[in-house]
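input
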Amino acid sequence: MKRLIFSVLMFFVIVLVSAEELELHHLGMGQGDATLIVAKHKDNQYTTILIDTSNSSGKGKAIFKYMDSILGSKYKRLDVLVVSHLHTDHYGGAAALLTLMQDNLWEVGVIIDKDKIDFPSFDGTYVPLDACYDHRDVYFDNDPIQEDEFGVFGAVFDKYKNKVDEFPQEKLKLGADLFQLVKKVDTDISMKCLATNVKVLTKWGSKSHVDKSEKARSENDYSYAFLLKYQGFTYFSGGDLGGYAPAYLDLETPLINYFRTIPTQGDFHVCVAKSSHHGSRHSTNETFAEFTNPTMTVIQSALRSYSGTQIPERETFETLEEIDSRIELTYIPEDAMQPWQGAVDLYRDVVIKVKNPGLQKDVFITVKAQLRDKKDLKLIGDAESVTVRCDKDHGF
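output
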């Protein structure tokens, strides 16, 4: 009997010791993405990955403050910084963030962005295919910000590149795993690159892909896309990847071929998805949404208006509601009944936590939400938590 009790106790000790913890911090920074991924591994070591840095130096400072508050006493290192594509609402905070890391003795493992692509401007000189808002971008043709003709955004780009050049850099290849990029980690978690530079993987376990680079219309088409897997839990993040033509290329639909070939014992689905392009109607197409069938979708946006159109857009909400995906927003709209229009009242961090989700069983996802003030980005009040059950097939 004593031997049985000892064996049972040892079993639970081993489970507790070996269980990994995963956190996905979708920071409410207004317009612009900033997603911090923190994994605590079996040996109590960490992996930290940041995808995008929002749109300004002030946001970069706020991101560092947040990271330092949750990691500064444990792990003063950012293993990987990924800039999903070269639009200012994705890299605008990077220079300030990296400067603060240097000043506060944080380490940075590697920075990943795409190669700069130059094209002739109207006066015959060359400028970076930069963002938001290049003149080839159909969706933003009438944005008054273009009257500056790269004056402001060219300077932001130069500041970003000058700072990034102080750190190790790498261009990510299709199929690369972020969790194995800068150090070998004993982990059940992987985060593989499925799309980069207008190339999309089409078959699991191979180098098969489609290349649409000659048809690229916008910087958005160059976005990195990733699939994170942690036992039965799955998470998708695709920058500003498009799903509808002609404004942007449809690069979502080819990804379905990749998902179809992942070996499973049941139907593929995504437990949590970050909606591409801030919930724009040009992403999250119906075919992609129905196939990935996300239990939860996080929309990072701030009801920003472009050419009179605000994103996220009503069509995206309708697509997600049709598949019964729980929607989490990184803002609180003034009009809660119609979250796709009007003004933002407060920003909102959405933190996803998963621990030892296992296989062939329901996955329980903790969602912690914390409000932020729009002006100074300070956290407000206490965080609220809810547990969401993903009862779909987790057989792979």
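quick obs: The chain has one domain: 21-390.
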